[in-house]
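ok so i was messing around last nite and threw this chain in just to see what happens. nothing serious, just curious
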Amino acid sequence: MILSSLLNRTALSAARNNHSRHPIHFCRVFSNSSSGKQKKRSIKSLALSVHFKHPDFGMNDYEILSRASAFLLAVDPPPPPGALDKDDPYAHLAVNERERQRKLFKQHHRYTPVGNPGDSRELTDLGWLEYAPREVRPMVHCVCSSHVLAPFLWTKYYPQEWLTKVRQEHCIYTLEVFDEENPEKGALGKFALNPYPIHHPEGRDVALIHLKDEEANLRLMQDLGVEVLYMRDLDEIYEKGDEVIFDGYVVAEPNKVDSPSFDQDEEENKATTAKEKKKSQEEDTRVFFPYHVKGELAFHTRDRFFATTPSPLPEGLCGGPALDKNGMVCGIVEGIVPKDHSNKDIAGSAAFMPNYMMAPFIDFAERFMLQKILPKSLFQKAVTAKTTGHLGGGIFKKDAQGRYQPAGNSISYEEAFDRAVDQLKKNHTKEEVEAILNTIQRERREVMEIMDKEGGDLDEVVERVRQRTMQVRAMIHEEYRKELAEKGDDSIIEAEVVEDSEKRA
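result:
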């Protein structure tokens, strides 16, 4: 990624008037067409810009903060195999018929149903957002690097003091579309993004953000040749030497377009004169240029892949897609390993987060969004459907031994726990709820420790820990009763249960 020259300044009060300003709150599409038939574009990545305006810095207009690459990832799965054969001369007829059916359906229904025609997936296989009508949720995610959307969250990368004062509410976000064959003509279109990014909950360098006025803007973007990408099947195996295509944008000076390639300019860029460097710090005039290159998988760790490329990826590729030979997303670019890295196996390689690490984050983000979209009761029904595969009927059912077990996978326990906590909050004070939850956490730790050290039947261990808790509780109650009795508190009445009413009967 590239950060504005502001990130390299020590004083924020100087040179404010010469910066590029682009406060885009709407979509702008520019025509670069001329008469005659044009080759259909295939644009797989987009140029992402983050602008900011902070009143404490004396800023009257938005200024560039950071720039890099991004791409659109479909929320819904791709059509079934054979539904769209690009080589079929009549494929457009199937597309037109599907569009006609969609419009006809919308004439009589407010919301569209879930899934594609012929979709035979189970409820548990649906994505979280597929449980919401398309009219009230996004159709695509804009996937990008977290450190580009919010550099102020990455103090390890950017320790500048002034940056700590910048917050999300000071920023606006835009996407630009460029023609890779004519990038010098500028952006074909510029599109605004909603200022509500979702960052990885564990601090990984990936984030999602979404288009403003998505239905109209997405149609315009696709007319310009922008492709909505799909995630590679998680069951597909990677092998060393597999081809990987990196797609994104270089941030370079405008005159670099006259050069045969960006690779040849790398040494020239290093030889920039001090005067030119000073000028670039005073005014950031760099622009985006499309860039794509093929690489090969060479090395991997548990959560990161490394691919060799003819030369190290240039600045600006962070957040761009890593694609397989079929154009499916197999990862997102995280960065470039320095050439002088101590591990020669990965020195100079492109590092990217593989799709199987992206998938849990997207699942988390979509569940979070669905919870914001649907009413609480309806969201709980969606959770039940996704985790159990059943619509209604509760989330527990009896097993062969007559014990109640979750009808779906383990997340049902979590949902049941959440419901129980909600019920506790209705009937108890905040302090009481905290005490109960602390007891549960302590018992859980004790059970895990016993199982690790001694093993045994889980139900028996749980019962053992529970009995210990009950004994401790009885001791506390007894001490409390004695203390009050010594103080002569008349509100405490000692009593003894002589006989249970049912037994007496």
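not much to say yet. The chain has two domains: 2-75+138-357, 376-486.
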